[in-house]
Amino acid sequence: MTYEPEPRTTEERAKWGRYGLDITQWLKLQGRFAHLFQKKDDEISVKSEHKALVSGIQRQVERDWEQLLVKCSRTAQMRG
User: N or C, which end of the chain is more exposed by having fewer CB within 10 Å?
Assistant: First the structure.
């Protein structure tokens, strides 16, 4: 997965999520999650029956990321 500091367009924001964390790209790299994907015309996409699951994972990652940002800001305030 690559680092994207700030999505540039609305389409990129929709693709990468609120914080630029696209869990789908990470899951594709993990062989243990291959059952979630299908290959069609040289393109790998989430199987329709697993879209809700992957969306739920994405939402959880974003919630966890928000909590981490809050914890980091509290730690910085305590030190500063």
Answer: C
Instruction: State residue 6 phi and psi, 5-degree precision.
Output: -155, 115
Q: What is the pTM of this model?
A: 0.67
Taking residues 48-70, report their average pLDDT. 92
Residue 23 CA to residue 17 CA, distance in Å, equals 9
Locate all alpha helices (DSSP H) within the chain, ordered by sequence: 10-16, 23-29, 51-79
Range of the domain at 33: 10-79
Domain annotation covers residue 44: yes
Closest CA to 27 of 4, 64, 7, 1: 1
How many domains is the chain built from? 1
